[in-house]
């Protein structure tokens, strides 16, 4: 039985029923992965830096065993310059922190997989826009430098939103509920993002 650990932020975290319909894709990933156990350590408001500083990567490291997978989706909170405690510069410390996740996984003979940030609902002039461009690119650079798997979840999610169109896409995000939140998912959206990710992830696991 493969074990899949998740290190990420509020777009991935599991939410209590009282917080429904807000949800993270991590709480639905289990449904789409064959012969896997998903262990979700994602928590809101964390960047690649603060997740490590708070000892959360160390907690995962203490659980990791040979053959486990560590999925790392960071970037949403890394980009918030107005919150310097979270902020990382894309091509400098962000890359260094991502390397720490990779090296930690490999130290325990686990397999790291980088995930570019999942799409926000950013729709302008009939087109879904890609956010966090520097962070996506920096993560791909780390993937090449470290010979680490990278799943371009930003690209996959934007492609899916484009396919279904803005009316359907809006139902994926909490803006459909509260009129303001274009980042966090409804249960419907979180489940769809988990499904999108699982297809690429399953190919890596089965390779």
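Q: What amino acid sequence fits the structure above?
A:
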């Amino acid at each position: 039985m493969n074990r899949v650990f998740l290190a990420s932020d509020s777009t991935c975290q599991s939410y209590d029923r009282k917080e429904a319909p807000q949800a993270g894709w991590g709480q639905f990933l289990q449904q789409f992965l064959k012969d896997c156990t998903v262990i979700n350590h994602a928590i809101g408001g964390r960047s690649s830096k603060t997740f490590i500083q708070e000892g959360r990567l160390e907690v995962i490291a203490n659980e990791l065993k040979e053959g486990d997978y560590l999925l790392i989706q960071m970037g949403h909170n890394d980009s918030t310059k107005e919150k310097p405690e979270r902020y990382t510069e894309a091509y400098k410390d962000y890359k260094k922190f991502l390397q720490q996740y990779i090296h930690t996984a490999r130290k325990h003979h686990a397999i790291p997989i980088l995930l570019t940030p999942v799409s926000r609902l950013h729709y302008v002039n009939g087109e879904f826009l890609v956010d966090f461009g520097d962070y996506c690119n920096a993560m791909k650079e780390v993937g090449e430098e470290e010979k680490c798997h990278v799943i371009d979840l930003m690209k996959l999610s934007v492609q899916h939103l484009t396919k279904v169109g803005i009316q359907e896409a809006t139902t994926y995000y909490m803006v459909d509920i509260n009129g303001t939140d274009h980042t966090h998912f409804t249960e419907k959206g979180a489940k769809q993002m988990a499904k999108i990710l699982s297809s690429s992830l399953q190919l890596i696991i089965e390779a």
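Q: And what stands out in the fold?
A: The helical segments are 48-53, 56-63, 93-107, 133-146, 153-164, 166-170, 175-178, 187-206.
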